[in-house]
Input
Amino acid sequence: MKIISFANYKGGVGKTTSVVNTARVLAEKNKKVLVIDLDPQGNSTLTLSRSNPFEHEKTVGDLLSDKDLSIRDCLVETPCGVDLIPTNLHSYPLVSSLPANSAKRIYGLKNKLNDLQEDYDYVLVDCPPQIEGALITNAIAASDYYVLPIEGESVYALQGVDHLIQAIDLIREDSGSGIRLLGALVTMVDTRTKAGQMVMEAINRYFKDMVFKAVIRRNTTINKANLSNKCVCDLDPKSSGCADYRAFAQELVSRIDTEIKNK
Output
């Protein structure tokens, strides 16, 4: 089982979109996938479960704050063929109220995932848009890798990336996590425009070979899927958006397999 966090302190970069669509494609390839929604906005929960986040009785907030709850107690089976640990806005105060010296603020998720080593091939974690706090700390402490989604047309795409990577490195050292960057995923890009070309060049200069070759092009089908709370491959399996996420999922698996072989 490999645990991959999708993290960026900025909102609107395609983080949640990438989590749900990558999970959907991996499930399509008969992989056993669990999505953990750590973003209290609950957009992954809404898309995958196709139900209001507040309708779920047990959330990741309950999981992290209640020592007697297991992952299986909170699992939701979804129509997408992906299992889910849901969240909603109530999760944040539940986790924030943990004592400052509580191990649950760092290792709660990691400890509870230890019981699932044989249950899943991949666990994808949708991180909150922040670089500090118990939720992001739990994600980093539990994960093997992280993917950094970056919007491909924003002139501010790389702003704060150094700070984010340093924050993750610090949490990794403090928690003893083995997390490492799997790659930067460029989203919402249109390389036909000058802005898109300039941002892509800047991202490639910064991350070099850590940039995924697969990119997520800006297209209306992904926007329609998001508005419909669906995965793009469910809305239109022949769309370029679906093709892009299939290519990314394949590259993600390939990178992890290569890392395992090179250990």
